[in-house]
Design goal:
This protein has about 450 residues and is an all-alpha fold. It folds into two domains: about 200 residues, Up-down Bundle (Growth Hormone, Chain: A), CATH 1.20.1250.20; about 220 residues, MFS general substrate transporter like domains (Growth Hormone, Chain: A, Up-down Bundle). The chain is about 80% helix and about 0% strand. It is built from 15 helices and no strands. α6 runs antiparallel to α10 and α11 runs antiparallel to α13. The radius of gyration is 22 Å and the shape is globular.
Length: about 450
């Protein structure tokens, strides 16, 4: 499907118009609460695993328990979501996640950790159904005219929930109230949101027919989703861009604690000193995109964003050499305060640049996916994105331990920046033909 005309230039008033839509407001509030709660839980589970097992393996198994369902069930969830009632999918998924969180209250000793791993797996598996269902209904709820504004709010909330939930709120709540109180309260948040979604007047959407054996058709439909994407370069390219950005967040999370401890010497717990400015700039970037994004400049934004993210990571890797050079020039000794200040300065463009990629690419993905197959397209994106994320989880830490944090960060930054430059070159070399679909595929 070729997009010949995109929404008019978004504005602040359009964002408010989207929020005045009562159905979108309920979906957005539920998204904000559950995603923030999920990030609080992620933080709390890392503490729980470290406290009960005292091993990196125990912590790694928690991360794997959350990551594996996205790869195993992500695309399958999209196939099923296209066949099911989206409102029911979102409500039931939220109930299951709330129950899984509440069950962490049973994990009180090392012998109980298997339950934490199982509950985390169930939580993440249920989330695989929520995301494509939500992404599918948003264009129907707000309409094409307000899709850019809705995606800006969606991505701003997603990024903000990561910043608030994991970096700030998780640490504060666990410190003040304790792990098990946090699990109980967060479980209740999911249950309340499930009620809100069940009561929302989410419009009924076209679904795939239920004739015949549904399970027998799942594999064929899954292949259909992949084939749909493969035949439309604009979708495969947008999925690649989004996967790179999502992986870059995980890379910062993977290497950030070691960077804070070894380079800044402020301790892993104070990683928020770096993450806070980046998070604020991400929110600023989302607002800027909402005002400036147009069909004619989307890919320029995406390519500039990829280049900015890559160069920001490279700049972080150079913080120690730059500081040493400045100190030698001044004839003084290295100051930890100066190193930290430069690191904060170099992290701010990371967040802003990430927003330049995420919002336009997500809009392209949604606009080029018909209602009846959009769930499969979005689920394929979530699957690929999380599959790519296994690389930093498994490999980056090992590489950093062998060659050092800074060289590893520099290599990653150069790869991302190189991808942005290459994507820009190929886009213009092809005559900006990524949105063109052959007639027999339209």
């Amino acid at each position: 499907m070729t997009v010949t005309q995109a929404p008019p230039s978004p504005s602040g008033s359009r964002a408010w118009a989207v929020l005045r839509n009562p159905v979108f407001l309920i979906i957005w509030v539920s998204q904000a609460l559950t995603q923030t709660a999920q990030n609080v839980i992620n933080f709390a589970l890392l503490i729980l695993a470290q406290n009960l097992t005292g091993t990196a393996t125990g912590v790694g198994l928690i991360i794997l328990s959350f990551s594996a369902p996205a790869v195993l069930f992500g695309a399958l969830a999209g196939v099923l979501v296209d066949r099911w009632n989206k409102k029911l999918v979102m409500a039931v998924s939220t109930v299951l996640r709330g129950a899984a969180v509440a069950s962490y209250l049973l994990v009180r000793s090392p012998q109980h950790m298997w339950w934490a791993y199982a509950a985390s797996f169930v939580f993440s598996a249920a989330a695989q159904f929520f995301s494509p269902a939500e992404g599918t209904v948003i264009p129907k709820v707000v309409g094409k005219q307000h899709l850019i504004a809705a995606n800006s709010i969606y991505n701003l909330t997603f990024m903000g929930s990561q910043f608030v939930g994991f970096t700030l709120l998780g640490w504060l709540l666990v410190k003040i109230f304790g792990l098990y109180t946090v699990f109980g309260v967060m479980g209740a948040v999911f249950l309340v949101c499930s009620v809100l979604l069940a009561l929302a007047r989410i419009p009924t959407m076209e679904t795939e027919p239920q004739e015949g054996n549904a399970l027998a058709k799942v594999w064929d439909e899954l292949l259909e989703g992949w084939h749909f994407i493969a035949q439309r370069r604009t979708l495969s390219v947008s999925i690649t861009h989004l996967s790179v950005i999502n992986s870059s967040y995980l890379l910062i999370g993977t290497l950030g604690p070691a960077f804070a401890a070894e380079i800044l010497r402020i301790g892993p717990a104070n990683l928020g000193i770096l993450l806070a400015p980046a998070g604020i700039c991400t929110l600023i970037g989302a607002v800027v995109v909402n005002h400036l994004a147009r069909p004619s400049n989307r890919y320029r934004m995406i390519h500039a964003g990829l280049l900015g993210v890559g160069l920001a990571i490279v700049a972080l890797a150079l913080v120690e050499p730059v500081t040493s050079s400045l100190v030698r020039t001044a004839g003084g000794s290295a100051s930890l305060g100066l190193i930290t200040l430069l690191a904060v300065l170099f992290t701010t463009p990371f967040g802003f640049s990430a927003a330049l990629v995420a919002i336009p690419a997500q809009t392209v993905l949604q606009e080029n996916s018909p209602d009846e197959i959009r769930g499969r397209v979005l689920a394929t994106f979530f699957t690929l994105s999380n599959g790519v994320a296994f690389f930093p989880i498994i490999a980056v830490g090992v590489i950093a331990d062998r060659v050092g944090v800074l060289p590893t960060m520099a290599g990653i930054g150069l790869l991302i920046a190189g991808l942005g430059a290459a994507s820009h070159f190929v886009y213009h070399r092809s005559g900006r033909a990524w949105d063109r679909v052959p007639a027999h595929h339209a």
